[in-house]
Amino acid sequence: MQAEELVKRFCEREGIPFEVNASGSFSLDCDGLTVNIRSHDEGRRLSLAGEVSHGAPGEDCEPLYRAMFEAQHLYAGTFGAVFSINPDTGVLTLFRMIECEGLELEGFFDHLGNFVTVLELWTRVVARYDPQKAPQAGEPEQPFPPFAGAIRV
After folding, report:
1. Using CB atoms within 10 A of its CB, is residue 80 exposed (0-12), middle (13-18) or buried (19+)?
2. pLDDT per residue over 46-56, tens digit each?
3. What are the two backbone dihedrals, phi and then psi, of residue 39, each rounded to the nearest 5 degrees?
4. Sheet with 26-30, side-by-side order of all strands
5. CA triplet 134, 49, 152: central angle to 5 degrees?
6. Cα–Cα distance for residue pair 30/65, rounded to 1 Å
7. What fold does the segment set 3-133 form as a domain?
8. Is the pLDDT of residue 140 over 50?
9. Phi-psi region of 130 (alpha: psi -120 to 50; beta: other; left: phi over 0)
10. What is residue 143's predicted lDDT score, i.e. its pLDDT?
11. Structure pTM?
């Protein structure tokens, strides 16, 4: 199924109006988080994107970034999504590209649900990040976040 057809069928099923914005994305509100869905490669792929932070998370973010990279390693804690950072604003974004060939509506629901779960989790982690709670030099390293490694595909 083509990307646009998947999104239209999703909207019909959920009773949501299908409206593409000026940037060519369909924006979906998921419990206060915005997921932008966009078609690529003439509908053969679609992307899911959502902001994990609305600005730079603050100072001394190395433990936070390390945890994000570890979660992203082999997609063990991101269900196939990757993190990016806007070099100008520091905004952290979660992004996932999905192949549409052979994908049916239920599979799209699964991908979207997993993406929203990871987006919610990391939005909370970044919002609550406190560098003072990160291990200092010489201290034994504790897993950060406390549930690091708990999400498995």
Report:
1. middle
2. 999 999 998 87
3. -85, 140
4. 26-30, 33-40, 45-51, 92-99, 82-85
5. 55
6. 25
7. Yope Regulator; Chain: A, (3.30.1460)
8. no
9. beta
10. 45
11. 0.83
Structure tokens at 152: 């498995």
Q: Give residue 136's pLDDT band: very low, low, confident or very high (50, 70, 90).
A: low
Contact 27, 34 (CB under 8 A): yes
Instruction: Check if the beta carbon of residue 3 is closer than 8 Å to that of residue 100.
Output: yes
Query: What's the full length of the chain, in residues?
Result: 153
Instruction: Determine phi and psi for 30, rounding to 5 degrees.
Output: -120, 95
Question: Could you give the 3-state DSSP secondary structure of residue 100?
Answer: coil
37-87 residue pLDDT tens: 999 999 999 999 999 998 877 778 888 898 899 999 888 889 999 999 998
* Pick from 97, 143, 142, 151: nearest CA to 122: 151
| CA dihedral sign, ordered 4, 5, 8, 13 | negative
The Cα–Cα gap between 28 and 16 comes to 9
SS3 content of the chain, % helix, strand, coil (to 5): 35, 20, 40
The token pair at 3 is: 């990307």
* Amino acid making up residue 126: V
- Which structure tokens are listed for 40? 């690529």
